[in-house]
Amino acid sequence: MDYQSETIRAKRVAFLGISLSSISALTVILGFPLLYTYIQSTQSAMHHDLQFCRTRAGSLNGEYSRLSGLLSPRKERSAGQCCSCGAGGQGPVVRLLSNL
């Protein structure tokens, strides 16, 4: 009886080992191509987004340099002028407030 129970136990362990190794091999055979496809599609999407960002940054930089040449630098206000146009003197409200 002892020999037969040991044989049955060994058969069960062997069957379990073969089953687990077969399932592991099938998982690897099916999993690696799926994982590779996922990584490749993610890399492709990231590359596409990076190219878009580079193109957009280049066009924004070009617009900025084009517009910065058109705009004149801002002038500082002086204390005696009413506004940044520099066309006239102080307004009546400023004169009243400065006399107080």
TrEMBL record:
<keyword id="KW-0472">Membrane</keyword>
<feature type="transmembrane region" description="Helical">
    <location>
        <begin position="12"/>
        <end position="36"/>
    </location>
</feature>
<feature type="domain" description="Nematode cuticle collagen N-terminal">
    <location>
        <begin position="12"/>
        <end position="64"/>
    </location>
</feature>
<dbReference type="InterPro" id="IPR002486">
    <property type="entry name" value="Col_cuticle_N"/>
</dbReference>
<dbReference type="Pfam" id="PF01484">
    <property type="entry name" value="Col_cuticle_N"/>
</dbReference>
<protein>
    <recommendedName>
        <fullName>Nematode cuticle collagen N-terminal domain-containing protein</fullName>
    </recommendedName>
</protein>
<keyword id="KW-1015">Disulfide bond</keyword>
<dbReference type="GO" id="GO:0042302">
    <property type="term" value="F:structural constituent of cuticle"/>
</dbReference>
<keyword id="KW-0812">Transmembrane</keyword>
<comment type="subunit">
    <text>Collagen polypeptide chains are complexed within the cuticle by disulfide bonds and other types of covalent cross-links.</text>
</comment>
<keyword id="KW-0677">Repeat</keyword>
<keyword id="KW-1133">Transmembrane helix</keyword>
